Amino acid sequence: MxxxxxxxxxxxxxxxxxxxxxxxxxxxxxxxxxxQQASESERGIFLRLLExxxxxxxRWFMGHETATDAEIAQLVEYIGTLPP
Length: 84
Description:
The chain has one domain (3-81): DNA polymerase, domain 1. It has five helices and no strands. It has helices at residues 3-15, 21-34, 40-50, 54-61, 70-81. Helix 3 (40-50) crosses helix 5 (70-81). The two termini are 24 Å apart. 13% of the residues are buried.
């Protein structure tokens, strides 16, 4: 990983901190396990996910609601299947 990549990774790790431990764990899990090999398209979807408000994220991950954006909904479902 280049210095620029490492800096971006650290910045993204900080953005994954949401104030709810459960959300933090889900988002960081994806970042640490999938980010480096993700395509540019997949990375863009994750970045859009990080722009979402915490209360919406929580409802999506708990299955109370589904994101209207199909790509984000698919990513939320995938993140939810990652083993702890």
